[in-house]
Amino acid sequence: MRDLYIVAYDICDPKRLRRTYRCMRGFGDPVQLSVFRCELTLRERLRLEAALLEIVHRDEDRVMFCRLGPVNAQTDARVETLGRPFTDPRRHVLVI
Questions:
Q1: pTM for this prediction
Q2: Between 38 and which of 28, 42, 43, 72 could a Cys-Cys bridge form, CB atoms 3.0 to 4.6 Å apart?
Q3: Distant-in-sequence, close-in-space partners of 11: CB < 8 Å, separation ≥ 6
Q4: First to last CA, the chain
Q5: What ranges do the domains of the chain cover?
Q6: Which CATH fold topology does 3-70 show?
Q7: Of the candidates 35, 48, 63, 54, which has an alpha carbon nearest to the alpha carbon of residue 2?
């Protein structure tokens, strides 16, 4: 079962910040600066956490996981914005 997470990070060093961004791209979609939308199984979340622990410095940086519940639940009811509306970055497969 996949859960929807918002993962936000605050990384102090520019080199670690770039590495964190590249790592996160493998697990989700960026929705704002340093904020990703990730659909993860428990195993994928643990893999992501392990990968991030190799990058971040625990005394200087922070990564926050916000679990929003099962992926198949309605996302729009859980995410509210001010300004530009949130658009779900779900990937669609197109076969030509």
A1: 0.80
A2: 28
A3: 17, 20, 34, 56, 61
A4: 30
A5: 3-70
A6: Alpha-Beta Plaits (3.30.70)
A7: 48
